């Protein structure tokens, strides 16, 4: 794969759109768990279509990721850091694919439809089963925690590159040109 100076503009747009959606989803998820009021229904009505949106966006993003040239990491980074960066990105992609699918399967097992609004209801992924729900409910929480931790590590690495190392890695995702 050829290398580019910056990520493709569509990849950059998807990155920042997904970042906003993921942070929104994490806050909604926490609020849903902490809320026993009527606010829970509203949060759930946002949570389901937002999860489906994230699933669609990550699929599109993966396709674009393989279809476009990407910037190389700086040669100044030790090999273990380059490896960790690649590994953490693939973990993020995996978690971003798994989490909405687990949520959809969990709701299917509980007998709850995944509604997107406008009368659109997704087909169930699993038949109604208490055992399936009992397995998937805590898994959805654990994957959310893993996703939160991975996103925080990703954010910390981005800030390290942007403000301490100043090695150009952060600019590849913002598209900002270097000021000399």
UniProtKB/TrEMBL annotation:
| Compartment(s) | Cell membrane
What are the GO MF terms of this UniProt record?
A: electron transfer activity; heme binding; metal ion binding
Q: Give the signal peptide, or none.
A: none
- Names of the cofactor(s): heme b
Please list the GO biological process terms of this entry.
Answer: respiratory electron transport chain
Q: What SUPFAM superfamilies does its record include?
A: Transmembrane di-heme cytochromes
- How does the record classify its membrane topology? Multi-pass membrane protein
Cytochrome b561 bacterial/Ni-hydrogenase domain sequence ranges = 7-175
Q: Which UniProt keywords apply?
A: Cell membrane, Electron transport, Heme, Iron, Membrane, Metal-binding, Transmembrane, Transmembrane helix, Transport
A Pfam family of the record is: Ni_hydr_CYTB
Q: Which residues cross the membrane?
A: 12-36, 42-64, 90-122, 142-165
Q: Which InterPro entries match?
A: Cyt_b561_bac/Ni-Hgenase (IPR011577), Cytochrome_b561_oxidase (IPR052168), Di-haem_cyt_TM (IPR016174)
A single GO CC term for this protein reads: plasma membrane
Superkingdom, natural source: Bacteria
Regarding protein family, the annotation reads: Belongs to the cytochrome b561 family.
Q: What is this protein called?
A: Cytochrome B
Q: What is the native source organism of this protein?
A: Pantoea latae
